[in-house]
Amino acid sequence: MLSNEEIETRYQAEVKQADVDHHTPTAGAMIGHVMANLTIQRRKLRQMKWYAKGINNQAFKAQLTTLLAENDMLLDKTAERLLDEGEVLPTTQAEYTEYGMLTEEPRIKYWEMPAMIAEMVADYNTANLFVSRAIKLAEKEERFALAADMVSLMGYNQHQIRELQSQLGKAAREGLDEEDDD
């Protein structure tokens, strides 16, 4: 059993290493951002499920139930892979707040379903910014299992974007990619 002093020493080493990893990003640190985004996304999906109103709200709530289950599976799979790689995971609300880049909006409960869907599209798109960075870092570090999991997550997110965009009557990348000014 670890003494309080040993626990504190380990925790302070973890905090110091996390600071180093986030200033010179590593795959593990970047995937910590991915995990924080998945955690924030879970809260947003639940909020939408609780408050969705409209003609097709039951179908939308069923879709959200599926997305929530998949989100939980992806979060657990990502955590397990990081642990396999000897990484320390973000686990506290403070860490999720610090590392997460998805925004939370308490007024979302009053939004119409198309606005909620558009928000999910934006969240998956934002999440992919961190997933793509994690892929590059994992490949550079030759951490191929991490890279493979992140490639899979990127594909999952892209599929969700296409499905949600179609519900809005849009093409998969419509309104998401910056237009070339050339």
Outline the secondary-structure elements.
Layout: H1 4-23, H2 27-51, H3 57-84, H4 93-99, H5 113-140, H6 144-167
Spell out the key features of this protein:
182 residues; mainly alpha; globular; 0% strand; single chain; Ferritin; 73% helix
| Alpha carbon gap, first and last residue | 64 Å
How many independent structural domains? 1
The radius of gyration is 18 Å
The overall pLDDT average reads 91
CATH class identity:
Mainly Alpha
Number of helices: 6
CATH superfamily (homologous) name: Ferritin, core subunit, four-helix bundle
CATH architecture: Up-down Bundle
What low-confidence regions span 5 or more consecutive residues with pLDDT below 50?
A: none
Helicity, in percent? over 70%
Quick take:
This protein has 182 residues and is mostly helical. The protein has one domain (23-167): Ferritin.
Structure description:
This protein has 182 residues and is mainly α. It has one domain (23-167): Up-down Bundle (Ferritin). The protein contains 6 helices and no strands. It is globular. The chain starts with a helix and ends in a 15-residue tail after the last helix. The mean pLDDT is 91.
